[in-house]
Structures are given as structure tokens and as C-alpha cells.
Amino acid sequence: MSRQRVSTTVDDKLLDRARNLQEWPSDAAMVDAVLDALVGRYREAEIDAAYEAYDRHPREVADKWGDLASFHRLAAHSK
Fold this sequence. Notes:
0% strand
């Protein structure tokens, strides 16, 4: 993985709180973990938004392929 140097200023108290959450091998490792969590949070929101279509279309209401509720019942019994 390639690395990029980041130089910035941050709130002293917030940085101290983050450093004290656990023993980080380095500030870089802490920033990597925080960025990974941030990106993950937004990815989860994107996935949730993609599934909102299912909330707008009730499982019991049939479309041209049938209804999802019946499909789920059949799939559960086929195991």
C-alpha cells in the first residue's frame, strides 16, 4: 500500500482523547484507523440508501416476478 504524508493541525483535547482510546503503535496508525472507520460509515450509509427501495415496496405486494415474502418463505424451506 502506498503511503501519503499528511500534515495538519487538530484540536489538542480531541487528539489526546483519541490517543487515549487505546495504545496506538503510532499517530499514523491511529489516523489510518479513524479514516477507515469514517469511510466504512459512509459506505454503510450508501448501502442502506440502496436498500430503501425495498422499504418503499412492501414484501407482500407482487410485481411481475411475484412477491418477495413468498420467495423468502420458499427459500427458507429449501435448505
